[in-house]
Amino acid sequence: MPLTGARKWLNEVIFGTDTPAGKYFDVVLISTILLSVGLVLLASVESWWVRYGDIFFALEWFFTALFTVEYLARIYCARDRRSYVFSFYGVVDFLAILPSYLALIFTGATYLMVIRLLRVLRIFRVLKLVRYLSDANLLVRSLWQARRRILVFYSSVLVICIIFGSIMFIVEGPKHGFTSIPTSIYWTIVTITTVGFGDITPHTPLGQAIASMTMLIGYSIIAVPTGIVTAELAHELGREKQLARCHNCGRAGHDANAEYCKHCGYKLEDFEPVTEE
Amino acid sequence: MPLTGARKWLNEVIFGTDTPAGKYFDVVLISTILLSVGLVLLASVESWWVRYGDIFFALEWFFTALFTVEYLARIYCARDRRSYVFSFYGVVDFLAILPSYLALIFTGATYLMVIRLLRVLRIFRVLKLVRYLSDANLLVRSLWQARRRILVFYSSVLVICIIFGSIMFIVEGPKHGFTSIPTSIYWTIVTITTVGFGDITPHTPLGQAIASMTMLIGYSIIAVPTGIVTAELAHELGREKQLARCHNCGRAGHDANAEYCKHCGYKLEDFEPVTEE
Amino acid sequence: MPLTGARKWLNEVIFGTDTPAGKYFDVVLISTILLSVGLVLLASVESWWVRYGDIFFALEWFFTALFTVEYLARIYCARDRRSYVFSFYGVVDFLAILPSYLALIFTGATYLMVIRLLRVLRIFRVLKLVRYLSDANLLVRSLWQARRRILVFYSSVLVICIIFGSIMFIVEGPKHGFTSIPTSIYWTIVTITTVGFGDITPHTPLGQAIASMTMLIGYSIIAVPTGIVTAELAHELGREKQLARCHNCGRAGHDANAEYCKHCGYKLEDFEPVTEE
Amino acid sequence: MPLTGARKWLNEVIFGTDTPAGKYFDVVLISTILLSVGLVLLASVESWWVRYGDIFFALEWFFTALFTVEYLARIYCARDRRSYVFSFYGVVDFLAILPSYLALIFTGATYLMVIRLLRVLRIFRVLKLVRYLSDANLLVRSLWQARRRILVFYSSVLVICIIFGSIMFIVEGPKHGFTSIPTSIYWTIVTITTVGFGDITPHTPLGQAIASMTMLIGYSIIAVPTGIVTAELAHELGREKQLARCHNCGRAGHDANAEYCKHCGYKLEDFEPVTEE
């Protein structure tokens, strides 16, 4: 059953991106989301909360009201209400307004602290932004194609971290900061990913030798995910161009390194990426 | 001589992965291994050991008994007992149950501490997990193909680390933490792999200048293993697809970037990887 | 209107790089720029400023006078004065001499400190150096081709950092150094880029577990920009060689992996890169 | 003039690697070099020097004598003495024995310390090892092909470091550890290469924001050398195989992804790399 009247118009504005009104709505919505997220970030600064607590509180409810209206409007004008509510973005839209209302129920002495923590969950609003970036598909598809290899890779890294963590626990022991095997594994992950906080460091010569080995292994291992992703990405990049259509003549099937349409000679630089289902 | 009766059935369950019973056994075994490894990790936390030492001790022996029975069953039903016992996994299976029994012999005052250290060796059980991941072959083959280049690369890195470590020892000296050349080499490895713990840092302007050079070299060097692995991985990826068989018509010989079988047009997405001997 | 007389000669010397005089001028100019930048760097060292302040001050004005004369000469002999003044390098040339003159107007008690800060802006002179490196085009073109993908990548990284930063703020809290969400986001960026200063570190087991996850995600994510740039660079590298002309016969259209000209057999090693508009 | 008698035999043993004696000599020499380098490393440890100083001193002179004999023998049996002495390895061989003799001349109170510092130069003996690894050629050739791009890349990184270093000096200032612009540049290099010692860290919100930007730029920049090296290495890898000869029929010209000789079907796995001059 096609939508009619106000519901159809609202659907075009809120869900659509083709009409000027729909585009304008999206820009305003993204700006509002960014502002509300910025508000949560600033409200977490102790000194600002003490001084501008009332303003933060008022703005908090202003944004909550705004997003509630938006959520209800989305449900009202959705083509299939049930599937919207249980879709990924339907759940995210709901989670974005939930915390403020939850703070009303759990009132009491610790009210302010609780609302501050719950408010943080509103960050999930940021996830909405992803919807507006269509070029992310290529990256996501590359990562998805490589999912099995990435899983194997992470399993190997974890096994290496557990073994090296245990060895370091025996060698260095609690008196040098390696208080338990889980802590040693944390140290190994910090080291093998080349983060290197320096909160825990080996002090015995043997520990430093094993740490050096861990680092050199990590150095080599860092190449593996890069290799996996690069190989998949190069493959997807070539395929995207092959499937793309020329802006001038509309025909596809170009080579991966083609610069001009082989049918009409039109420059292919800003060709339309093909969306797949 | 083919196996018969109970031995044949046990062999299918323990070593095989084709029958439902064999699959079920593998899932239970992996879960048990993960649980026993988790136990070792938690038992190393001082405060937990003090409180739940008895439970850890009991569970420790429960898992040891379980893995002992499994090890004996594997020997009993193996097609070639000798080759199983001396195979990689045969040795790992043996090492996984050894520490607990060793702790019985070396009793005395330091009993508890010793058993804790020996217990850590049980981590090798985790290595069993690798057996269940068949996709690791591609990664291992890529690394194996590149073994000579990786060796040359590591030799060069070590030579650079020894030279820079010696220079830093002369420039900074023991009073800034560079107590000996081995320690300076440890610092150079920490720096060139971009880990950067910060437990030892240069304080003189000249030392900071040489450190900057070390980092920029490390920055460039990090590209080399990535390049090696990526080049090999891209090669292996293409070859794997070339050797793969179509699910529909069973014919192989597809191009590296093929999406559909060129013989029957069937989608190739989840093709079977070819295992090589 | 073509330039004549002294103006034409000056134009060839200052803007041109084909005549011996033009090449000599460029070498002298680059050396002067490097010297003046080095002067700003050294003058910022407290102890040197106290001792050699007068010399720094004199050299400062010497370089300012030199670059002022150069700037006026550039305007005088430019083919199109207006377009030079508002071009990127015209603005940079102007910004390079501005700070010293501004220091004359804002005299007073804080004179010395102000001039020191303004002087730092002179660093932009270094940007002039880029003009002399023509090979940078390939790198810049590769990055430009990948601009949309890089933007998507950075957006995703920022979203991940905001979410993980918020979670760490709740888990670790102000008493472990995570004083506010912005600070936690700073920590997450430090961690996910594998920098790992160690000024803020997680102390609770849960915080360390989440930190480990952050690092492993960062480890995988580091592969994405590498994959993007490598794919684009390999594409541009092949295309550059295809467009390049043989030194011997002047013909183009060679394969990406060609070592010798396919028309005359001349070695292609140091072929001229093609500049595109 | 061809060599004869003892000189010819010595030349084959010392410079050659084809005869059993030549191979045996190389293995012994490499082992001796590694031992003498290990000696220098251990002698730098304060406590070991105090206890075993005499043994270190004796071994030091034993190795010096050995290498002196070797150096003289090399000069005696070289095909072209002049070109050997001034070749890279001729100079390295000379530098490896020089420090011990220099220590004889500069005797006195600081004798022990001086000899220890000079001894460090003996590390250059390690460089000899490179000669024995022929597979390094591919890596070196790849890096050489990319030399111009790597130079452009390093120039850009240095310009970015100088600009960000100056900005951080203004923003954070001496009271937060950014004592001068050179120190700030050192911090920027530590940060942009993702080393992150943590000896200097930003404390103001603005400084942390700029530091975050620096890290994210460094994160992206790390992709560029990887892309350059990978592209060159993939190219060289393909070319090496193309130039390689089959072990069975001796014919070359195979495809980059060939696994078997296209002339006789022999497996190509361990083909001989072609050495180029």
Q: What does this 3D model show about the protein?
A:
Four copies of one chain form a homotetramer. Chain A is an all-alpha fold and 277 residues long. The first copy, chain A, has twelve helices and no strands. In chain A, helix 5 (88-105) packs antiparallel against helix 6 (111-120) and helix 8 packs across helix 12 (223-243). Mean pLDDT of chain A is 74; it is low at 108-119, 130-134 and 270-277. Chains in contact: A-B, A-C, A-D, B-C, B-D, C-D.
Summarize the helices and strands and which ones pair or pack.
The structure is a homotetramer of 277-residue chains.
Chain A: H1 5-14, H2 20-43, H3 46-77, H4 81-85, H5 88-105, H6 111-120, H7 127-130, H8 136-145, H9 147-172, H10 181-192, H11 205-221, H12 223-243
